[in-house]
Amino acid sequence: MAPQGSPAPLEFGGPLGAAALMLLLPATMFHLLLVVRSGPARLLGPPPHLPGLDALWSPRALLLWLAWLGLQAALYLLPARKVAEGQELKDKSRLQYPINGFQALVLTAVLVGLGVSVGLPLGALPDMLLPLAFAATLIAFIFSLLLYLKAQVAPASALAPGGNSGNPVYDFFLGRELNPRVSFLDFKYFCELRPGLIGWVLINLALLTQEAKLRGSPSLAMWLVNGFQLLYVGDALWYEEAVLTTMDITHDGFGFMLVFGDLAWVPFTYSLQAQFLLHHPQVLGLPMASTICLINAIGYYIFRGANSQKNTFRKNPSDPRVADLETISTATGRKLLVSGWWGMVRHPNYLGDLIMALAWSLPCGVSHLLPYFYLLYFTALLVHREARDERQCLQKYGLAWQEYCRRVPYRILPYVY
Ligand SMILES: NC(=O)C1=CN([C@@H]2O[C@H](COP(=O)(O)OP(=O)(O)OC[C@H]3O[C@@H](n4cnc5c(N)ncnc54)[C@H](OP(=O)(O)O)[C@@H]3O)[C@@H](O)[C@H]2O)C=CC1
Ligand SMILES: CC(C)CCC[C@@H](C)[C@H]1CC=C2C3=C(CC[C@@]21C)[C@@]1(C)CC[C@H](O)C(C)(C)[C@@H]1CC3
Q1: Ligand 1 proximity of 265 Cβ (cutoff 6 Å)
Q2: Atom 22, ligand 1: which residue's CA is nearest?
Q3: What are the domain boundaries of the chain?
Q4: How far apart (Å, rounded) are the C-alpha atoms in residues 53 and 131?
Q5: Fewer C-beta neighbours within 10 Å, C or N terminus of the chain?
Q6: What pLDDT does 1 receive?
Q7: Which atom, in ligand 1's list, is nearest to the CA of 246?
Q8: At residue 311, what are phi and psi to the nearest 5 degrees?
Q9: For the residues 1-25, what does the mean pLDDT come to?
Q10: DSSP label at 280?
Q11: Cβ neighbour number for residue 24 with a 10 Å cutoff
């Protein structure tokens, strides 16, 4: 069943673009995993060798990944400190979501700590990244197919605005159903924040442990990368409720793009800097380390300040922390902030995120482009995401959005873009 009304415009280059991305994204991930451990570690060079199926396929890795998903699902289903309501849906209902992501992170840390104390070989994880990534990719394809089939029997009101073009390749990629769930387990919300994000910091920790084993102690650069990215993941889970207003949850269907992004792309490519440091140790002096910490702190300050200001305002515009900010009224009854963070550029949170991305790469030195892959990819992702969001906001708010763009002319970087 397709949703009623005019069909949504095709994004990501339509069916051809979607098909290309479905090949290109896993290929890029495997390329990165292979080159990072090679001597030259060239981002644009060929991988040292092409792995055979025996290097990729491992039933142990598949079982490990399934056990990880099972553990995270069990932690998700534990009693939560709060149950939050999502945005209003087409049928005027609101879904409920457990707020216990930070609790899941802490419990995972406790379980891993206990495991290590009884001999769990955490340091073996770095050698399993290739088969683990292969297992995650396989799971992503199968899971996306099941979600696609599930959407065939979903009511029209449960379908996403995009992802229902009638072209199976495009719809499989974008995702047909907006909030697929079984009982209280909301697959998109679960995958966006739990297995991938927590898996990312666990992989980082394993790389740090392995570096300590190889070189006597973890390097300062490895500590910084681990610390910065743990802060980022801890922050995402602490402010978990805020994810309910992101376009991934409110607008995009749950298809291959997000399933693969959440379960494979995030843990295996976002940990690239720590992987690089294990294979290419860097010496970092204290003055440089302090400068990088300052850059990360500035990025985090902007990112958190902007996200919290918007979330507070959306929850309660008369909250004293945002009540004095200047706003524009829109025909929908909602207002837009035009002062504070959201009066500087139209996406101050992206700016903060990008500054942090730079700080995560700098500990890896400037001799290689590879550790800057995240910064390059993330810039492209956010520029594209910003354009998608602008389109949606223009549709939602019309003239009021045009007025906002006139008053706040820059998108991400003041006076530049
Ligand atoms: N690490 C990663 O891989 C990724 C991280 N991110 C991060 O996720 C976070 C969320 O990003 P994202 O979901 O893209 O978008 P935003 O959090 O920027 O949300 C955009 C929405 O905010 C509302 N809005 C826009 N301008 C204003 C304004 N002036 N006043 C009030 N509300 C406004 C609009 O929705 P409405 O009016 O309906 O409320 C708009 O659709 C960001 O910090 C981003 O950096 C994102 C993608 C990937
Ligand atoms: C693989 C493709 C190129 C695209 C996949 C994109 C996904 C990896 C990202 C889309 C939006 C994301 C968000 C986060 C992680 C990456 C994905 C899933 C986020 C959970 C990271 C932590 C942040 O604090 C956040 C604001 C909660 C993020 C929300 C969006």
Answers
A1: no
A2: 310
A3: 15-38+54-86+95-283, 286-417
A4: 9
A5: C
A6: 36
A7: 13
A8: -65, -40
A9: 80
A10: S
A11: 12
Ligand index nearest the alpha carbon of residue 236? 2
Cα distance between residue 318 and residue 233, in whole Å: 30
Q: Alpha-carbon distance 12 to 2, whole Å?
A: 20
3-state secondary structure of 292: helix
Is the CB of residue 31 below 6 angstroms from any atom belonging to ligand 1? no
Distance between CA 217 and CA 116 in Å, rounded? 17
The CB-based long-range contact list for 101-104 (8 Å cut-off, 24+ gap) reads 101/193, 101/194, 101/236, 101/237, 101/238, 101/240, 102/234, 102/237, 102/238, 102/240, 103/75, 103/78, 104/72, 104/75, 104/76, 104/78, 104/194, 104/198, 104/237
SS3 content of the chain, % helix, strand, coil (to 5): 65, 5, 30
Instruction: Give the contacts of 75 (CB within 8 A, at least 6 positions apart).
Output: 100, 103, 104, 107, 108, 194
Q: Is 67 in the pocket of ligand 1 (CB under 6 A)?
A: no
- What pLDDT shows up at residue 190? 97
ipTM: 0.97
Q: Which residues contact 98 (CB under 8 A, 6 or more apart)?
A: 76, 77, 80, 82, 83, 184
Residue 5 is predicted with a pLDDT of 53
Q: What are residue 69's phi and psi, to 5 degrees?
A: -65, -40
The answer to whether 356 and 304 are in contact (CB under 8 A) is no
Structure tokens at 416: 């530049």
Q: What is the pLDDT of residues 115-129, one digit of tens each?
A: 999 998 898 899 999
Does the Cβ of 84 fall within 6 Å of ligand 1? no
pTM of the shown model: 0.94
